[in-house]
Specification:
The structure is a homohexamer of 256-residue chains. Chain A is an alpha/beta fold. Chain A has one domain (8-254): Creatininase (Rossmann fold, 3-Layer(aba) Sandwich). Helix content of chain A is 41%, strand content 9%. The first copy, chain A, has eight helices and five strands; from the N terminus they run αβαβαβαβαααβα. Chain A has a four-stranded parallel β-sheet, with helices on both faces. In chain A, helix 6 crosses helix 8. The longest helix of chain A is centred in the C-terminal third of the chain and has 23 residues, at 232-254. The first copy, chain A, is globular, with a radius of gyration of 19 Å. Chains D and E meet through helix 1 and helix 3 of D and helix 1 and helix 3 of E. Strand 4 of chain C pairs antiparallel with strand 5 (210-211) of chain D.
Chain lengths: 256, 256, 256, 256, 256, 256
């Protein structure tokens, strides 16, 4: 398998059997189809998830296999912006659960969902919870991307209001898929608390209580932060460090 | 309403109409029925949620009404311990969604779910997401308890491995319901990483990747941390500060 | 356990294990959040259910444990009146089924749901039916309150049109929670067939065919019967006799 | 339409439009496929439901139309006996709801489900409840058969333990479909309380608390009562009186 | 059983047990309640399904038993025409799956659904697929009617645009239920491509891509083809040949 | 957009808005993750679906946009072979429906699902049916691949038993993704009826009655037909002709 990419969809049935019996960790890239401001594509989250799965697989050179990407996630907060398509959390959960249990039925026991989209996090947690109840022996883990390296982002220095399409996310795209970023169209979104409405400022002021708002209540162009301050360099730091940490996790997991 | 407790279930239909038209915030206490170690009762999370809702209502003296408690939550990770009863995340989400939409149908527009149980958090987030898609004008927020005051807990100093039934939670119970804590039976649970299995240590070593384990894989007695080091004093700090912050949130919210 | 109230949520995990292995009957109080006329609170049905469970437990002094109350039921017929919140029958059934099966998984084998709200009866029956198919060995029973003592009510003499918030229900509240009844606001509802519309008279004239109407089609103030004719005395007769009969049932059941 | 039977399935689309605009009441016969002892067929409940719908239609000679029969109902309590097939209450409810709403969409506003099987009653009630919430203007009623004439049955005198396949039900079949009754095979089932197990006696001793048992816990041959004491005469009284009462209900309903 | 019709609903429980242990094939007639043009009844598909099941059973004289008819199917494409009632595909699938699994639970292992309505085909296929995954040993087959004998229809010569209520279907009804066909009202529907709208012509021009249209987009009177060219003779050929082929299938199946 | 590939996930939100208002047809590639014999990869159906969508888009040079691929389909018949992962038809239908309605909500009105996997066909039909009922104005079409060109396959001459992984499918892969075909491992599967079991021969002998079998009942290596007789040439004919026909359909559709 060394020369062939570890895409599950590229394996034959017999190779899949080998992967499962070898104890490979299955990575499932998860994304979203949602607005990413004026400059970035709808599939930004999917692209980043697939990219980091490929990097992880390349770094580990063995021991992982990459399942097909689930490219549509949970994005109701972006529906006011064109192009955004969402699944309900119920349907997204059903798909993830059936894919995870399907892989388990074929013999894999360690499965790691890798989501490029934070909106998928809560549903992934609910799937993990339900699986603990129904399949107590299955090992299902999941990870976001940027949130794996909050220290790298903090060190870089970002806008006071920062998030979707901001410095951190745009930088990643400049590193992994620069041809898909329309830098000429990039423009800052909401970057300072005083640009927010009272309600939005309240919602952003605390972790808890948690008050979810629609993105059109947070930013006119769908951007939080300043994509014009992004750089491929910062993107490289984020992606590389996240890759390191995910690889480290997998290595330790596989050894147990 | 000043003399009567602001329990929605204690209001007449006419009083409920007034509360809704007055713009009251509805608090929904959410708990769990799950093991809480040798010394604390199964309803610990429910008791703490109800207690803080009462404190918030008392402090604000008006402007909030407390919906009936939903006493069973999402607890599959505790099922190996006697007495634990869980809902699936699908059913828990359905109940919360129908209650929130039912309140909205009767005229309330700001609803804050208050959960004493962290296992409910992810499902509450998925409900909030789905409501953003289906009812973009409804304002639904939710909050945990201890996680509102991480600074207070950190300042107090707790075990290296700390969490369920640990110093922070036991202290709260010693403050709000000491008669339900069997201090004579309290004993430390897992308190140091070296007491954990390799898998449990891995799971606890990172925020992300997130690997959920059953509690019987984390602790023999269902406890993370040292309840014998708990104190009503620390409980008072946690509860009082959390009450302050939730009241502050509601005050700002109600003013918008 | 003699000194401590037999609330499941107040037991520790170990005490719950003992309760299950001792063969305790689990009582589940079920209520509603719905209009109860000008004088009674929205939670009237929940309050009465919790009260009778406590009386049953006190009378039997052992052998029963009380699960957390499920305070929202099936009340679509009252939705035109403020404050009423309902679950769909599907969601109500799901909650009851998961709670009953969750208790069964933890070792209890006899479970008695006690509903203060007649609107829950049909769904409880469907849950019992489905459980007969899926778990033929589990023993699940349920009971209403007032309908346990139709003879007591008949003997007392009530309005020709009588039911929700009428003499029987108001009397119970005057006995068990008089501080929550606003007697000054009590007023008769529909009490005679000639006050009903033709459709309502038809619907009330037969047990079968059964034609369900909304309560705003039956009564202007949501009341059927005359709450001003209620008395704590009648309430005591109803509650005490119902307690007797439910205790008798449990005693016989536990002995088999 | 006078010469043609008022079966909806026999009408053309144009005739259906006329029926709806004329304000016809739609009857939906509901049955079951379940054991009916040694002498009666699995479809007994369906046969009786279809028969009474035809009688009602004949008697009224206009103003009603009969929808297709739904021949499988809720029968989990009979599953231990060969031939019994049940739907879950969820699926049965979904079918009834979609059929009722489908008829309503085509213009009918009064719909009466006629069930030959008591096991369907609770689910029909839940459908009626949910429709009150979602379609407050639709008029949906339902009726059982034997329970419409409890006085006739009481007057006839039946076994102390009486019910499924007993004197009342067998008599109806002897009247409406004698060729399907194997009188030579008829034999008494459980007829006296002292033949019941303690648990079964408890379950039968009260209306409430309600404890549902499987039929194989109640009777060795699936019969409650004595079918050998049945007569076509009693069947005629039951069926004719029930027809009268249902016709009376429809006549009054149609006039409102 | 030779003298009695092989209707499952007419068998006693004991006879059902014999049928299952004898290895009978169970036929399930499936129909629809939908517009069939000016001349044919809403239940046309149900009538034809029941008819052919009876013919198959008569021909084979043993070895099959006929389950109760499911008379409402999947007909959303006809909803613009009065009288049409449809189930969602989800509910139709649930009913079929529960009936099939219910029969299997009672011992039958070969089940053949016979649908008179082509709109049911896709859902039957999805049920068969899901059963392959969940019950790999159960044998579930299904069959349409007219599509079993495309050669007979082709030989007869039909309109260029032909289908619902056309020569083939009307002929069958003239053969099996002539008293339900209002020949005086029969009139051609859409019979030539040039009568179709551009969209409808596109939709009819290819098997794939498949573009489903509503019937009111295809034909003003709900008819495709010319029912006035139908004949009982052609109906006899279609029905008899289809009966032959289904019998042949069952005979071979039963012998394996 | 001329230089950029018409992948929806590569468009910005503003470009998506333009695509929708321009009236673009959205293509949704649908595949499967299932065994494809000894020589072809698990993702064969997905690969072919994505390939033909790209060809169609390239040929039309405008007027279409390609949604993200849904890479897991309905494959329960292949579960006995390693690597196969399936969704239930219910979940697959939910995903397709939510994606189609999500695209519709964002302004697209013509949507064409392109499935490389025949096992998805029935569920796609059910989705189309339900959408006709709930969204009568939406235009949703779907197409398989090989079944668009049955004449090309027939002309080529294939094994008597032919299908999954046979000459036609393998040829397509040799044309579109030869680097993923392990020709050295290719071997004939079941190619003649006399190699089939009696049951399999029966199942394959008729279109209707339709009897679905598991693939391990049809072929030891999961192959029907002879992949060693495949050729890139035949693949080119199949793919090119299918592309032509789908483009022709879209061109006509877009012009209406």
């Amino acid at each position: 398998m060394t020369q062939r990419p570890p895409a599950l969809s590229h394996l034959t049935s017999a190779e899949a059997a080998e992967s499962a019996s070898r104890g490979d960790v299955v990575l499932i890239p998860l994304g979203a189809l949602e607005q990413h401001g004026p400059a970035m594509p709808l599939g930004t989250d999917t692209i980043r998830a697939e990219d980091i799965c490929a990097r992880v697989a390349a770094r580990l050179s063995g021991g992982v296999v990459i399942a097909p990407t689930l490219p549509i996630g949970v994005s109701p907060h972006h529906l006011a912006f064109p192009g955004t398509v969402t699944l309900t959390t119920t349907t997204f959960a059903a798909v993830v659960r059936e894919v995870v249990l399907g892989l388990h039925r074929q013999g894999w026991t360690r499965i790691l969902a890798v989501t490029g989209h934070g909106g998928n996090n809560a549903t992934l947690t609910t799937v993990a919870q339900d699986l603990l109840g129904s399949h107590p022996a299955l090992r299902f883990a999941w990870t976001p991307l940027t949130a794996v390296v909050p220290d790298v982002v903090a060190r870089a220095g970002v806008s006071k209001v920062h998030g979707h399409c901001g410095e951190a996310e745009t930088s990643q795209m400049l590193f992994v898929a620069p041809h898909l970023v329309r830098e000429d169209l990039a423009e800052p979104g909401t970057t300072r608390p005083d640009e927010l409405s009272d309600l939005a400022r309240l919602a952003r002021s605390t972790t808890y209580p948690a008050l979810s708002l629609r993105y059109d209540e947070l930013s006119a162009n769908g951007v939080l932060g300043d994509p014009t301050a992004a750089s491929a360099d910062l993107g490289a730091q984020i992606v590389t460090t996240a890759t390191d940490r995910i690889c480290d996790f997998i290595t330790r997991w596989s050894a147990i």
